[in-house]
Write a structure and sequence with these properties.
The protein is of the alpha+beta class and 191 residues long. It is built from 5 helices and 9 strands; from the N terminus they run H-E-E-H-E-E-H-E-E-H-E-E-E-H. Helix 1 (9-19) runs antiparallel to helix 2 (60-69) and helix 3 (89-102) crosses helix 5 (171-190). The longest helix has 20 residues, at 171-190. The chain is globular and about 45 Å long.
């Protein structure tokens, strides 16, 4: 099997909505040189966040049609089957160095943050001890996924060269690596 190209909207929607069974919606659009269609001139995440209100989930085909009809729109995955732990990019990438030796952890990278996917209802354990970050969990949590503007996979959520999902780690396990990375990051910054 060929690798899944998440820059291709059709391949991405089929992988997320079909193989992984993630509920998907289409979010705001990013317009080149005009910003986000949300209307906020200072939008911190143009074309990378959901529309307001309760999300309406559609079939893979309907989601793909909506995405193709709105060039530059965000593709939003809702956190019903996973939690997302969002941390600063330096800390998240430092944690990934050691996490890659343990098990594949789905990891999205953006300019300012890294999003790590963990077992549902365990994300809160990743930020125990007061580590800075955000947990997105449950029916109201969401994350923009590729081909959304500004995000890419560092580690994809499926086994390489297949469409089979990777097993997710408990947030507590990921939290141990984040804590080590955060401590190490502080030492580098303070040096």
């Amino acid at each position: 099997m060929e690798p899944i190209d998440t820059r291709n909207a059709s391949a991405a929607v089929h992988a997320y909505g079909g193989s992984l069974q993630w509920p998907l919606t289409v979010g705001f659009r990013r317009r080149p040189r005009q910003g986000c269609t949300c209307g906020n001139r200072n939008c911190p995440d143009p074309g990378g966040h959901p529309l307001p209100g309760r999300p309406l989930f559609h079939s893979v085909e309907e989601t793909l049609q909506e995405l193709e009809a709105a060039p530059g729109a965000a593709l939003i995955a809702w956190t019903r089957t996973f939690d997302v732990v969002v941390v600063s990019r330096p800390v998240g990438m430092a944690a990934m160095v050691t996490l890659d030796q343990v098990a594949p952890v789905p990891c999205l990278v953006a300019d300012r943050y890294v999003a790590l996917f963990v077992l549902p209802a365990t994300g809160r354990y990743a930020l125990g001890g007061g580590l800075p970050g955000e947990v997105r969990s449950g029916a109201s949590g969401w994350i923009a996924v590729p081909p959304s503007h500004g995000v890419r996979w560092d580690t994809q959520p499926w086994v390489e060269q297949t469409s089979r999902p990777v097993g997710l780690l408990n947030g507590a396990t990921v939290g141990q690596h984040l804590a080590s990375a955060y401590t190490g990051q502080e030492l580098v910054v303070g040096a």
